[in-house]
Design goal:
Elements lengths: L65 E3 L5 E3 L7 E8 L3 H18 L4 E9 L8 H11 L5 E3 L4 H5 L7 E5 L5 E5 L5 H14 L7
Parallel strand pairs: 3-4, 4-5
Antiparallel strand pairs: 1-2, 3-6, 6-7
Length: 209
């Protein structure tokens, strides 16, 4: 088991693509397998029905994914497109991950005073460093009062696609799916809010009505 002490900003445990602007409203390309959108998160906007990502580095468009959330429903990242997004990858054993989760509800409340914003979390490992289970996702959401999607990535397939090498990994994402900032550590509240304020202004034409 790998331990992370609170002084560390991150814990180290052990990408013919379609840009959103080119997707037409009548595109009927299906979302990732398993996406039914029968959950409590936002409906996917029509222009992102055929979305494909390019990668997870700054300037890339993030890959879409389908994961089981804390409500045992399927969640797709593309459901949140049209809002400014903060996506993070966590493990239960990582100290800064727990700190970020504890702060998230209050931070999201502040962020939504600025504009349309969604947070999303991907859980990969349990308290012992093994693959996370649904019980870990439920515990995470319940313990920290998270009212945004927490997805189970037990196989680390999504984490691998996003090039996760340490935890937490935070991606600041524009409403179009474009990665604006990539933080391989826990960002400060000021960094999160500064990004959201700038993104709401810079990507105003891409925001949900």
């Amino acid at each position: 088991m790998l331990l992370c002490v609170p002084l560390l900003a991150a814990c180290s445990p052990r990408n013919g693509l379609i840009s959103p602007d080119s997707v037409s409203d009548d595109d009927d390309t299906p979302p990732p397998e398993g996406c039914t959108f029968e959950n409590e998160w936002p409906e996917q906007l029509e222009q992102y029905a055929g979305y494909e990502g390019t990668g997870a580095d700054v300037g890339d468009f993030i890959p879409d994914f389908a994961l089981t959330d804390q409500n045992d429903d399927t969640f797709c990242m593309s459901q949140l497109f049209g809002s400014v997004m903060v996506l993070d990858f966590s493990t239960r054993w990582c100290g800064p991950c727990n700190e970020a989760a504890e702060e998230a509800p209050h931070l999201l409340e502040e962020a939504r005073d600025i504009g349309p914003v969604w947070f999303a979390n991907v859980m990969t490992q349990n308290l012992s460093g093994g693959p996370a289970a649904q019980s870990d996702v439920v515990w995470w959401a319940d313990t920290y009062g998270l009212e945004f999607p927490v997805g189970l990535d037990a196989s680390s397939t999504v984490a691998d696609d996003y090039g996760v090498t340490s935890y937490p990994l935070f991606l600041f994402v524009a409403p179009t799916g474009e990665v604006v900032e990539r933080h391989e550590n826990k960002p400060t509240d000021a960094q999160v809010l500064d990004f959201i304020e700038a993104a709401v202004e810079d990507f105003a034409d891409s925001l949900r009505p």
